[in-house]
Amino acid sequence: MEYLIDTNIIIYHLSGDLMVNDFIKKNIDKLNISFISYIEVLSYNFSKEEEYSVREFLKIFRLIDINKSILEKTIEIRKMKKIKLPDCIIASTAEIKNMILVTRNIKDFHNLGIQIVNLYENNKE
To answer: What residue numbers bound the domain in which 34 lies?
Structure first.
């Protein structure tokens, strides 16, 4: 099964979270990100050196662009549940591409009919 990695998981990795780092290493050949996560991550105010490193890191993921099916699913979900547009696009991408969404942000993706993995669910910080 393929994974769609949410923006918050990438941020945790960049912050040195060992659990996330381990998950990424173990599943490196199954990792994808939405174009939305790519934009969100690179919108942070990094130094030039940090941004270069982040861009290099993001190359390990298959980048999923929007298509007509994802667009239509996004519209459908937004009519049902008023979640933020970026989250809605990510959820639609996971559903259309039949991927498991890896996120810590469970509440926004709850009851959307997508598979979700929360790496932190059984781990206390």
So the answer is: 3-117
